[in-house]
Amino acid sequence: MPSSAILCPPGFLDRLEAFSQLGSTGDGGVDRVEASMANGEARRALARRMDELGYQVRIDPVGNMFGLMPLAEQFAGQELPWVFAGSHIDSQPKGGRLDGAYGVIAAVEAGAALKERLRGRPVAANLAVVAWTGEEGARFQPSVLGSSVHAGLLPAETALARKDGNGVSLAQALDAIGFRGTDHAPKPAAYVELHVECADALEKSGRRLGVFDRWWGAHKIELMFIGATAHTGPTPMAERKDALLAAAEVITGLRRLADAAPPGTLHTSVGRLEVLPNSPNVVPDRAKLFMEIRSVDPDVMADAHARLMGLIPHAAAIARVAHRIVREEIRPPGAFAPSLRSLAREQAAALDVEPLGLDTIAAHDAVPMAIVCPAVVLAVPSRDGLCHSPREWTEPADLELGAAWLGAVLERLVTEGPQHG
Amino acid sequence: MPSSAILCPPGFLDRLEAFSQLGSTGDGGVDRVEASMANGEARRALARRMDELGYQVRIDPVGNMFGLMPLAEQFAGQELPWVFAGSHIDSQPKGGRLDGAYGVIAAVEAGAALKERLRGRPVAANLAVVAWTGEEGARFQPSVLGSSVHAGLLPAETALARKDGNGVSLAQALDAIGFRGTDHAPKPAAYVELHVECADALEKSGRRLGVFDRWWGAHKIELMFIGATAHTGPTPMAERKDALLAAAEVITGLRRLADAAPPGTLHTSVGRLEVLPNSPNVVPDRAKLFMEIRSVDPDVMADAHARLMGLIPHAAAIARVAHRIVREEIRPPGAFAPSLRSLAREQAAALDVEPLGLDTIAAHDAVPMAIVCPAVVLAVPSRDGLCHSPREWTEPADLELGAAWLGAVLERLVTEGPQHG
Question: Chain B residue with minimal CA distance to A293?
């Protein structure tokens, strides 16, 4: 047990601010979409910093970046397990500076500070920090791509073959920035992720720290409507096969499903819509929707999905078009490891803070990790609950508190062993 | 009056077929979007053919291509007026091979054949053939761009400054293909356009030829919804400002206006929708709709517009977004010159065909021309009424009949003078 409160690593806020300049959009936000030039720049800066702090930098075949900090060779005659801490540095096209990057920079700095604190003390685990590839799913779907590969939930070949909207594969995009690696990395025995909340429960409650107890499930569906191009002028209304009309019927219908449910139980969305040929005076023959159904309750998800599946043929009939489900991805709801959640609460108490128990609705890399090892997400407030926006904001003192908390949790895991989690 | 029926110019179908290979999409259609590389290739082929047939090729500042065929110096001591025939060779991105190109190739070939027939006979007008820039409005709005400039309805500078979806201006695009000219071209004293019907009235009636008596009006509106980006997962439904949702409400609502009107009296559409940032897990903060309201009745247009203006704030309120009309363009309905319509009917009778009187709902270059001189559109059938589709089709015998008819109409106008029209 740590005898005194652990502090935020010195210079942490300055380092975070400097990192926010990489891919800056000039309005407080960043555009570091996975394997973009700006993302490559941020990756190189991260690798330099890891190296400077004594981490062994490893890049795996899907571009996950690991910083290994071996603390001891063996413990009680055994190979030491690895405690992981990290998050991601890719962003949305109009993303914020904290979503992901906060957790990575905090892990890197807190890990190095921990190594200093530990000098001479026995340890039960080694430490690895990590920045996962393609968490956002903005360019390559599915989201939480790199962590899913490392968790063994998705073959690396499948991830590398995923293509962006321009037909560029992840493999090609990583090659273009020089981050398709060949290194092997150890598997985690525990995983801790520090993240901004991306919701407003902490802000509303006035609490400064939160522990994610459960994650919402997400059912993501790519749907294509197939009509026929025709002139928007003369073509009789009754003869049109309008793929965009069908898409609009589904967008409004899917929204109504969420509006009809009790608040906070079901979230639905269409974030991306591809229309072809997308010419002002041509009836569109193709419309591809990227839809989401999210809930913490599997029955609510299944019910919403069944209703959506009823909406789609109805919309297709109205618009006289065909339809096809192009891709589906289901992430069931679940709970993070109780032991790690307790440990996080204990270490918050050591900082004189009582954390709020939260659900995470957004995906985090901790979700695929939680399938293979104890995992937890530590959260700090998001002003107005905003993420995926240049207006993301967390009070600097809370950013520092979160980094200190992460350091304290990692110290317990490294000194007492991840089986504690 | 011609003593015997005029024939289709020899080799016409082969020339049309060869022209269809320029910008071919491999499925029977073409992609010759204005000032694209394929459009430039088609323009060069057209200029070569005009030159070969003895036309003087002129390119004006907005890229309109004229082929001047002076038939005599003067008539009765006066400068001779110019009879124009033409259409356009730009296409939709997934366009058909006949829409536009048919009328241009027919004018060029029929004009040259007419010159041969006229040798030694007195004429009352000179002949010009023309391929207008940017009729389709697929890349640069408004549509019928080049003919509107030549008719004096739109300043050339305004047209040249119009930008495509990538921010490229018409001036830049024409420079890139070498078709921003400096030539002056005469003004028309009469304008005849041969075109496929782009509707199915001829096919349904079993007639082979049609005369466009009236044109429908069109009210085109570009509407922007402005919301706020946010994560599609955690953001509470009630707090989202979803620009795409507002767009979907308008798309379905605008369609319902047309569905509620008697068939064939009101056409509405949204052909293009731009969504930003268009990432699967980000609530869209921008959605720009390209909407159309069309009718032959000004009151129906005005009523539909008023209802649409009522829909928009309602949709904005549902989605918690702002809205702004970005651009509006109104083309009132109207009628083509009665004298030219009669002349066209007489010449059809000389070919033993009774043409059907039609409305044109699609814009044609003849509409801006009709504001400044007598104008008419001669039509041949479109199978299934399809235009703006690779499936455009007209029976070869009907294509030949139309070209012969155009030649006969031009002969009357050139020998008797455009005041006949």
Answer: B233
Q: Is A363 an 8 Å CB contact of chain B?
A: yes
CB-based contact A278:A269 (threshold 8 Å): no
Does one domain contain both B149 and B245? no
Contact B347, B231 (CB under 8 A): no
Query: Are the CB atoms for A351 and A211 separated by under 8 Å?
Result: no
* A254 in contact with chain B, both atoms CB, cutoff 8 A: no
Q: Residue B281 falls within a domain, yes or no?
A: yes
- Which helix (H) or strand (E) segment holds residue A379: the answer is strand A375-380
A388 closest CB neighbour out of B92, B220, B282: B282
What is the DSSP secondary structure assignment for residue A241, as one 8-state letter? B
**CB B272 to CB A278 under 8 A?**
yes
* 3-state class (DSSP) for residue B79: strand
Q: In this predicted model, what pLDDT tens digit does every residue of A378-416 receive, in sequence order? A: 999 999 998 889 999 999 999 999 999 999 999 999 999
Give the per-residue pLDDT at B2: 45
Domain co-membership, A230 together with A253 = yes
Q: Tell whether A7 is covered by a domain.
A: no
Task: Look at A233 and B268 and tell me if their CB atoms are within 8 Å.
Answer: no
Residue A299 domain-assigned (yes or no): yes
Instruction: Please name the residue that has the structure tokens 């590389």.
Output: B37
The answer, yes or no, to whether residue A74 has pLDDT greater than 70, is no
Q: Is the dihedral of CA A16, A22, A28, A29 positive or negative?
A: negative
Choosing from A303, A331, A359, the residue where a domain stops is: A331
C-alpha–C-alpha distance, residues A98 and A195, integer Å: 8
Let me know whether B129 and B161 are in one domain: yes
Q: Please write the tens of the pLDDT for every residue from B302-348.
A: 999 999 999 999 999 999 999 999 999 998 999 999 999 999 999 99
Q: Give the mean pLDDT of B123-148.
A: 95
pLDDT of residue B76: 58
Is B149's pLDDT higher than 90? yes
Instruction: Kindly state whether residues A282 and A386 are assigned to the same domain.
Output: no
3-state secondary structure of A170: helix
Structure tokens at B275: 């969504």
Look at residue B6 and tell me if it is in a domain. no
Contacts of B355 (CB under 8 A, 6+ apart): B207, B209, B210, B211, B344, B345, B348, B378
User: pTM of the entire structure?
Assistant: 0.74
Q: How many CB atoms lie within 10 A of CB B29?
A: 25
- Domain boundary, last residue among A331, A358, A386: A331
Of A143, A230, A276, the CB nearest to B281: A143
Chain B, residues 260-319, CB within 8 A of chain A, namely 263-264, 267-285, 290, 292, 294
Q: Let me know whether A222 and A88 are in one domain.
A: no
Find the CATH number of the domain harbouring B73: 3.40.630.10
Task: Report residue A75's pLDDT band, with 50, 70 and 90 as the boundaries.
Answer: low
Q: Which domain holds residue B193?
A: 12-216+333-420
